[in-house]
Structure to design on (839 residues):
């Protein structure tokens, strides 16, 4: 029987789920680096089976140099596997056997958080937090009703990260209005909003009048292929 | 028609989603498709949204079938479309040819991937020749090459209108980068922008009673005699040439006094735009020309840009090995401007690549 | 002596008559049965008739019904596209054995599996007629054609395709699958009627293969033609209803 390092004191296991292009990968990378900067040992797992060779692959080396343990396909793994079809990295399946914190970046798809069925021990783990990333500027989560329907479809969700932005056209009012709506839905659904994420260019600017912590994001994904 | 957008709104989406939302906003009624990367999310989002708006979808057995079901659907009067890429685009040349021959208002989105053959699933501009002149015909098609998500949305709406107004198969030519990139755009209902959507109409399955108040429709695409076909092709060619001036679209910047004009299309023109700005900042007289329609090609406008600038060189930059180059040369035959090339088949081109090439060319 | 005017179905398009099929060709019989069936079901205004490439194409303006030409093998998807868009129409795809069983087999198979509500009529004359008598998927073992000049050798080219048999296996109980022959006119009409009814009643996919004659490419006289149809083809391709939502099959 495989023994998982479950329930190890202080262990952090977080899975980021959510809409396509909602910001899961960016937030997962930033979260992993944040924990690493606290002196923790962190494994970042690319569980995007939709575009497995195109998400973390191009920046894998750079992140490893930052001190993260990365479970993602690398360029050599993808040789002759041009299609971006559903591929599960065997190391991702056993990711929870790694020591230390585990950050799981889950690809989008109709199965939502069921993707975690593919990770051995995930559903039994008492450490696991499933965090839904929501960007109000994404049309599929662009009204309160749609957010509610979307989050309900994901399955188990322990917390929400509000990540409203419009890329390089983001303004404070876009962030505020969107995240306000997300908070209202979260309250209705009785799911806590863990924090909101905002591009670091907004650091030291006016404070948001929202009752939630802010984490500033450094952008890594623009260096990825897609 | 039900309003798709409650209000005009900024959104942050991928290019494939922009196709889906644009098609919904354009009043598209049914999509036929077959999975191929990098266009899959067009289908993913269409299938998620279609039931909410009472739209149809069929995943066919292959791209031949996807193209031919669209042909049948538009014959019956429905605003139908498909999306494909690479080898799928190759297979669809057969139904696209039928749409050319029968003047069917087919609309298709092509998200180019690397070639030849299965190539890569990522990106290229190697489907220019195929999309403009594929099939065993004369290229009687209208091809819009987009460069941003806003354009994907705008030209998806426009593409349906063009197809139904002129009844030539119409294409939106994107690529894997545009398909998967994320950027903001404004989504709107066409009527809010004063865009009138062209009504669709059936070619078969007409109302009325045959022999009483209408004749049966017999749609034909094969002819017994050379002369019959000759007349049809000549007539269609004349019609195509007659409408071409009102269809051509292009973008031109800084060509008045340019020593060198950078010519590119699609996503590469974003790099070209940045490059020209940077070159100008450095005191180099570079100009920018971008055909938006690759068929019909804005050849008159390009000739004028060359003439008025007195440019000595034309740099053609593309993520292919000379497909835009060949297309351009045949369109501006007779011009004596020296043509330089930046061919990077299947890989992206950034402003730095173009700046370096321009500097080494001057 | 005065000419006797033949009785023609109302749904026939008379300006295209006399039709262009060869003397002794079975297509005329199939199309007469189909015309009479369209009349009896009173669906002339609702029919969309689609023709494949090959001899079946000669039927493109045969009916006073809306009709469309397609490509070789592609009639099935064109009919599917129309039916999916306008379910109130009655779509009839008309094809040969090459178009249906060879170049268009993936469309035929998948339309059947998806239970597309179209009616397809496939005329089996054991060869490619229009292109000059080449071997077809349905060419009988030992049968000479222009591309099997020493007779079809099953060791090299396999055995004839049994279309209705494989479609019957693939389809749901709502499908209608039958094989008719131009030698049994009443039965042919009954099968065609069932195939159209099955679509009109919204059940699903309907398919009728019709054994037919091609004296031009068989190089047979009238007696030899009929003998080949009844004594060579029918034993290999049994006639009857293989699947019918309308009750017990008619063998």
């Amino acid at each position: 029987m495989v023994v998982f390092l479950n329930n190890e004191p202080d262990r952090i296991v977080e899975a980021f789920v959510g809409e396509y292009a909602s910001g899961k990968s960016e937030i997962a990378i930033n979260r992993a680096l944040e924990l690493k900067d606290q002196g923790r040992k962190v494994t970042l797992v690319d569980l995007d089976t939709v575009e497995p060779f195109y998400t973390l692959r191009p920046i894998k080396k750079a992140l490893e140099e930052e001190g993260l343990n990365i479970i993602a396909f690398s360029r050599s793994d993808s040789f002759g596997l041009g299609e971006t079809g559903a591929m599960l990295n065997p190391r991702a399946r056993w990711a929870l056997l790694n020591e230390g914190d585990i950050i799981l970046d889950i690809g989008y798809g109709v199965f939502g958080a069921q993707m975690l069925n593919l990770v051995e021990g995930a559903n039994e783990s008492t450490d696991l937090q499933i965090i839904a990333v929501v960007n109000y500027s994404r049309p599929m989560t662009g009204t309160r009703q749609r957010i509610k329907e979307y989050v309900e479809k994901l399955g188990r969700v322990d917390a929400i990260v509000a990540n409203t932005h419009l890329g390089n056209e983001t303004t404070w009012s876009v962030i505020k209005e969107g995240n306000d709506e997300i908070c209202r839905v979260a309250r209705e659904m009785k799911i806590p909003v863990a924090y909101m994420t905002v591009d670091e260019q907004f650091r030291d600017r006016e404070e948001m009048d929202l009752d939630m912590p802010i984490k500033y994001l450094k952008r890594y994904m623009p260096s990825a292929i897609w | 028609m039900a309003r798709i957008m409650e209000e005009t709104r900024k959104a942050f989406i991928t290019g494939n989603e922009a196709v889906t939302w644009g098609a919904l906003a354009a009043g598209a009624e049914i999509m036929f498709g077959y999975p191929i990367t990098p266009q899959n999310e067009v289908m993913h989002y269409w299938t998620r949204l279609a039931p909410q708006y009472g739209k149809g979808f069929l995943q066919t057995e292959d791209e031949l079938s996807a193209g031919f079901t669209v042909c049948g659907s538009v014959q019956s009067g429905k605003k139908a479309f498909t999306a494909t890429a690479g080898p799928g685009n190759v297979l669809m040349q057969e139904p696209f040819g039928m749409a050319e021959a029968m003047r069917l208002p087919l609309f298709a989105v092509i998200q180019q991937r690397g070639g030849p053959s299965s190539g890569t699933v990522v990106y290229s501009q190697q489907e220019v020749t195929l999309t403009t002149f594929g099939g065993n015909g004369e290229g009687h098609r209208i091809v819009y090459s987009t460069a941003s998500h806003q354009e994907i949305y705008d030209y998806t709406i426009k593409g349906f209108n063009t197809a139904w107004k002129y009844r030539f198969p119409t294409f939106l030519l994107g690529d894997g980068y545009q398909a998967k990139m994320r950027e903001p755009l404004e989504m709107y209902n066409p009527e809010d922008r004063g865009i009138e959507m062209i009504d669709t109409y059936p070619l078969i399955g007409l109302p009325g009673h045959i022999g009483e108040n209408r004749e049966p429709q017999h749609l034909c695409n094969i002819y017994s005699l050379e002369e019959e076909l000759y007349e049809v092709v000549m007539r269609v060619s004349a019609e195509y040439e007659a409408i071409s001036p009102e269809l051509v679209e292009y973008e031109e910047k800084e060509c008045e006094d340019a020593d060198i004009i950078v010519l590119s299309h699609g996503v590469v023109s974003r790099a070209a735009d940045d490059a020209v700005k940077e070159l100008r900042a450095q005191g180099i007289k570079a100009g920018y020309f971008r055909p938006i329609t690759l068929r019909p090609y804005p050849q008159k406008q390009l000739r004028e840009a060359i003439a008025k600038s007195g440019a000595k060189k034309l740099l053609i930059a593309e993520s292919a090995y000379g497909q835009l180059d060949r297309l351009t040369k045949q369109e501006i035959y007779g011009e004596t401007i020296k043509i330089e090339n930046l061919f990077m088949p299947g890989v992206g081109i950034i402003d730095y690549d173009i700046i370096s090439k321009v500097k080494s060319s001057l | 002596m005065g000419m006797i005017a033949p009785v023609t179905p109302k749904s026939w398009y008379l300006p295209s008559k006399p039709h262009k099929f060869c003397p002794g060709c079975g297509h005329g019989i199939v199309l007469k049965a189909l015309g009479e069936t369209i009349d009896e079901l009173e669906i002339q205004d609702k029919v969309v008739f689609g023709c494949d490439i090959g001899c079946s194409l000669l039927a493109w303006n045969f009916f006073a019904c809306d009709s469309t030409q397609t490509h070789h093998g592609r009639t099935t998807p064109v009919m599917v596209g129309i039916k999916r868009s306008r379910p109130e129409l009655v779509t009839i795809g008309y094809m040969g054995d090459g178009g249906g069983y060879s170049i268009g087999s993936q469309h035929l198979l998948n339309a059947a599996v998806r239970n597309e509500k179209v009616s397809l009529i496939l005329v089996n004359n054991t060869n490619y007629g229009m292109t000059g008598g080449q071997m077809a998927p349905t060419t009988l073992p030992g049968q000479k054609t222009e591309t099997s000049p020493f007779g079809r050798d099953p060791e090299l080219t396999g055995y004839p395709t049994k279309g209705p048999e494989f479609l019957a296996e693939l389809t749901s109980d709502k499908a209608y699958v039958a094989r008719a022959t131009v030698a049994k006119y009443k039965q042919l009409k009954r099968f065609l009627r069932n195939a159209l009814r099955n679509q009109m009643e919204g059940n699903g996919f309907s398919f009728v293969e019709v054994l037919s004659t091609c004296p031009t490419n068989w190089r047979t006289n009238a007696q030899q033609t009929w003998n080949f149809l009844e004594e060579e083809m029918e034993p290999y391709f049994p006639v009857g209803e293989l699947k019918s939502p309308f009750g017990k099959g008619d063998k």
Q: What stands out?
A: The helical segments of chain A are 24-37, 60-65, 90-93, 144-154, 172-189. Chain A has one domain: 13-223.
